[in-house]
Design a protein that fits this description.
two-stranded antiparallel ribbon; 7 helices; alpha/beta; about 230 residues; globular
Amino acid sequence: MEINGIQKLTLLDYPGKVACTVFLAGCDLRCPFCHNSELWSSKAPAVMTDEELYAFLKKRRGMLDGVAFTGGEPTLREDLEEVIRNVRALGYSVKLDSNGAHPEKLRRLVESGLVDYVAMDVKNDPARYAETCGKKEMDLSPIAESIDLLLHGSVDYEFRTTVVRELHDETSFINIGRMIRGAKRYFLQPFADRDTVLFAGFTAPSPAEMEKYLEAVKPFVMHAEIRGMDRGE
């Protein structure tokens, strides 16, 4: 497998773990506010092979606890399962980031016990889901299936939404709350502009708006919080 990026140490990407983050190219969505647009194409340049990843992880035993796989959309990679098995054999726990568009692949990884934690992006409420994913229309039944898998399965998980002023409002979060009703954890993270965001015109909600959205979704989930916002703004 080609590895398209690696963050060698993170205390943020994998809750409760000292981890590294592995970036895999290829995504079937085109969210216009995406921070990792350089990984949309499966032909994005590689920074290492899977064998080089294993060598790195062998050297980091005792310093790292886990490996977070992100993208792009990792479940599009046919050899993901084999790589995860090899990473687990080295003694690491595994977190998977996913857009939830491929529930059959997510289910296989979860039910095989290959992942210990799943972070699924819930892009928006149904009315604006396709728009938020950069599509004209979108079948949301796979998204609903992935949500149901996490809500009623045994793997630890979180749902999360990147909040964009031009795409979300209070109603969005009431409806997202209905989609993930009963969820263990839900995080709202404000959009932050970067050079890798290809489309201009997107901004972050104000702290007051973020707090309002948080209150809108709280009645539906066990725990909700804002991640990555400076309360001093």
